[in-house]
Predict the structure.
Amino acid sequence: MRADARRNREALIEAAREVFREQGYDASLDLVAKRAGVGPGTLYRHFPTRESLMDAMLQSWVDRVNDTTDKVLLHEGPPRDLLLSWLQEYVGLISVHKGGPAKITGSFGVEGSAISTKCQALVDATDRVIDRLEDQGALRADVEAVQMCRLVGGVAVVADNGGLEPDDVRPMLEVVADGFLA
Amino acid sequence: MRADARRNREALIEAAREVFREQGYDASLDLVAKRAGVGPGTLYRHFPTRESLMDAMLQSWVDRVNDTTDKVLLHEGPPRDLLLSWLQEYVGLISVHKGGPAKITGSFGVEGSAISTKCQALVDATDRVIDRLEDQGALRADVEAVQMCRLVGGVAVVADNGGLEPDDVRPMLEVVADGFLA
DNA sequence: CACAATACGGAGACTGTCTCCGTTTGGCAA
DNA sequence: TTGCCAAACGGAGACAGTCTCCGTATTGTG
């Protein structure tokens, strides 16, 4: 890739991060281009779809998912606390921006979605937590990671849509956690 | 209201029902107007916002919510079955059209939303089910109807977004149900 | 039947998406 | 260094959707 192309690509990703944070995932892409100091054509050449731009943006986010999982798994204590704190972190992770939860949670298993590859990081992370809990015999029999992701994702979506406070989210996560525990 | 105005209003609601069913809630409103055989100006005079049009559309739906609740409450059997069948009906009720679950679930408690008034029907219905379950001492202590609506709504949203089959939804609802039960 | 009051409708302003193509730039080979 | 051309740029503009304004048409009442 040519030097100017690489430069513009980076500028676009950075601009997208800014603009999406400010205005949510529906923000005008032409604005992203303008903010990056390039023409719309350049944006669409680098990122043919809105999704592909998000995919690029979420690259570094995957690292954060993994780091957070490591941290949560360090925590010793009752299984319920472990699960609950993972669920809370999960909501935090996918609530990066307005509209993020819906975008991410809606992309599980939708093949062809650029974001769906990133979702795998979430499923893998959740799987690690589930493995730990299963070792402790704390879970009901048939728990699958994707299922848990979807359920918690749903909570995050409504929290995001409705502007819910953490205090409103907590009890919902408790319900979910208790539903998954043996 | 003048006779022609009433006629157009009805035509618009009927057209909206058609178009939204075919294309989801993001469908072009000008198309709805055209389908109804009126100009865009007429549509926007009757329904200043997309929401207000939906609100009118959902009028008859409220009746269906109540009927369904009646039917579910007739069912005798273990509390868990009652709750589960309500949750399933709930998902069905709000999944009228593509995008419906997100629209409805995102409108709880958002005051000023025309749809939010319709959501009250859902909360009330859920409350009736909760009352029954509480009489049987089957629920955990602090269950609120809105909370349950949001949680199940979240499930419906991800089911809708991801094109999930009822078989995928069922286990998620079981988790939710078990989370709410004592 | 006439005349307000009420309602209609479509042209068009505005915004966002995405493409096409003439112009510019980077980097390699001579 | 220079010249070349593939690679990349950028912005005009086609297209679609939202929503408004205002001249025109319709209703129903006195």
